[in-house]
Amino acid sequence: MNRIRLYGAFSVCALLLVSGSAFAQTAKITYEEYQTRLAGYEKRTTGAKRATAECEAAGNTISSEISDLDSLIAAKKSELYALADSDEESVGSYMGSLSQTEERIMSLLALSDDALFDKREEVDAIGEMIKKFKQNKISLISDAANLIANIERQYNRLDDRLPRKRIKKYTVMGGDSLWKIARNEMDGDPYLWPRIYIENRGLIRDPDLIYPKWVLDVPFGVERNRHLVRRGQHLSTIAANVYKDVTKWHKIYQANKQQILDPNLIFPAQVLDIPAN
To answer: DSSP string covering the chain, please?
Structure first.
């Protein structure tokens, strides 16, 4: 076989010589040179095959190690989920809820102060949701713990930005009264007129006397953990709304004794402190 390959190689060299070109002259080699080059090619080929085999073996070893590592990771995850009284699906759902909460907080942070004022109940609900997240054992998993920590930081920023109340400027016109302004500007409730008076005591000396072109501050809403009394409300109805328990009306009364002389008598526009349940 080597002789046939050798004769074939000589035939090719002979054809190149016949062409008579400069290339043919530079390609002319001796038999000994040819043998040397051929041996070099064979050695390189053998080395390449050996290296390929070694790479394949190393690749198989690495694949086996990766498979073993994946199995180990899966086992550790199962142990971790068991400690959290959960499973992979529940953890995935929990993490998804955390991500959605984080996204919602960021979208609320992008709102203007006026728009954010109207979202106070949602902000409070998110705060309660974060507390529930932390009560779940899944929160002890490092990825969840890190995400909750970031959510709490962003929530604190949101809570700090939340306006205590919103003020609307109103220019008094001829024929206006505090009663009329409250009816037209404060959810159609004229009994809230004392709020306008209290907010503008530096300007209004007599609530029955206001003048055209005065610019009044008309307040909306109250601070968190406070309640604006509306017409027809009683301490028991407020307790039912706040605590879901009418019998806790006395908590509100005790917190507001300075302004409530008779627990059976409260007035529209009063702002009551609401103690924690």
So the answer is: -HHHHHHHHHHHHHHHHHT--HHHHHH---HHHHHHHHHHHHHHHHHHHHHHHHHHHHHHHHHHHHHHHHHHHHHHHHHHHHHTT--HHHHHHHHHHHHHHHHHHHHHHTS-HHHHHTTHHHHHHHHHHHHHHHHSGGGGSHHHHHHHHHHHHHHHHHHHHS-S-EEEEEE--TT--HHHHHHHHSTT-GGGHHHHHHHTTTT-SSTT---TT-EEEEEES--TTEEE--TT--HHHHHHHHHS-GGGHHHHHHHTTTT-SBTTB--TT-EEE----
All domains in the chain, ordered by first residue: 2-63 (no CATH), 88-161 (no CATH), 166-273 (3.10.350.10)
**pLDDT one digit per residue (tens) for the chain, 277 residues:** 444 343 343 443 443 344 444 444 445 778 788 788 877 888 888 888 888 888 888 888 888 778 767 766 666 666 666 667 778 788 889 999 999 999 999 999 999 888 888 888 899 899 999 999 999 989 988 899 999 999 999 999 999 888 877 888 999 999 999 999 999 999 889 999 999 999 999 999 999 999 999 999 999 888 878 899 999 999 999 999 999 999 999 999 999 999 999 999 999 999 999 998 7
- Give pTM, 2 decimals: 0.54
Q: What distance in Å separates the CA atoms of residue 74 and residue 124, rounded to the nearest whole number?
A: 38
